[in-house]
Design a protein that fits this description.
It contains 9 helices and 7 strands, in the order ααβαββαβαβαβαααβ. It is α/β, with parallel strands linked by helices and 234 residues long. The protein has 2 domains: 99 residues, Alpha-Beta Plaits, CATH 3.30.70.20; 121 residues, no CATH class. The strands form 3 sheets. The chain has a 3-stranded parallel sheet with strand order 6-5-7, sandwiched between helices. The chain has a two-stranded antiparallel sheet with strand order 1-4. The two termini are 33 Å apart. The protein binds iron/sulfur cluster (2 copies). One iron/sulfur cluster binds next to α3.
């Protein structure tokens, strides 16, 4: 029986044209084909670490997003999981993994029924060699079927400007403060869950990624947007 990783790598190699043959866990295949039906973290095996209570993964979760199912396996709660991946790091048995949505993206590119835009995080500039310029990356995305590539950094600049206005508007004395980090979903979720009394100090801004997606959809209502970046939670 192929492991989850082996199945995933096989599907990446073979593309979207056919379903894999041979022995594999159908749950793994369903996760890869339909990630939107599952939470941000997938359990890819039975929990046999010997911790029936307070397992390392449960201790790592600040968001109460892990419960047990009737068989005693960990079940990730879609409503409360933030995708921080702390539980994945803490499971020494490798029974948890981050979700992957590459297969649906490839499917949309191949089908060609709607324009698909790549929204790339600012970190891309340090990910490759100096030879990989934004223009070359854009050309590469277009070559594999994307309609275009948009740098989310543009919207980070716009939102920084907005937050500067918010700061000017709300901060008048040494005792005033505001919590400005609209780009980080874990930070926002942590304040909501653990420091709820501070929620009022978060300025009302969406993240640069969300702003970028909205701008594209304002221009091209039928477009699909794909965020590509190093932060899984986003
Ligand atoms: S996910 Fe990993 S650490 Fe958590 S209970 Fe299952 S096997 Fe143990
Ligand atoms: S990804 Fe983070 S929030 Fe989600 S279950 Fe794991 S530890 Fe909890």
């Amino acid at each position: 029986m192929r492991s989850f990783r082996e199945l995933y790598e096989q599907m990446l190699r073979e593309g979207t044209g056919s379903l894999p043959v041979g022995a594999f866990d159908p749950h793994h295949l369903d996760c890869l084909l339909n990630p939107d039906r599952y939470p941000p973290v997938w359990r890819i095996g039975h929990c046999d670490c010997g911790h029936e209570q307070h397992a390392p993964c449960e201790q790592a979760c600040l968001f109460d997003a892990l419960k047990r199912d009737a068989q005693g396996n960990i079940a990730v709660q879609n409503e409360t999981c933030t995708g921080c991946l702390a539980c994945v790091e803490r499971c020494a048995q490798g029974k948890l993994t981050a979700s992957r949505d590459i297969m649906p993206v490839l499917r949309r590119l191949v089908q060609g029924e709607q324009p698909v835009y790549a929204l790339i995080a600012p970190a891309f500039i340090g990910q490759f060699s100096q030879d990989v310029t934004p223009g070359r990356l854009r050309a590469a995305f277009k070559n594999i079927g994307f309609a275009g590539m948009i740098e989310v950094a543009l919207f980070a600049d716009i939102l920084t400007l907005k937050e500067a206005f918010e700061f000017d508007h709300h901060i008048h004395t040494d005792n005033d403060f505001m919590l400005a980090s609209c780009c980080c979903p874990i930070w926002i979720a942590m304040i909501r869950k653990l420091y709820n009394q501070l929620v009022g100090y978060i300025p009302p801004s969406v993240s640069p990624m969300v702003a970028c997606g909205r701008a594209i959809k304002r221009l091209y209502p039928d477009a699909a947007t794909v965020f590509i970046g190093p932060c899984f939670a986003k």
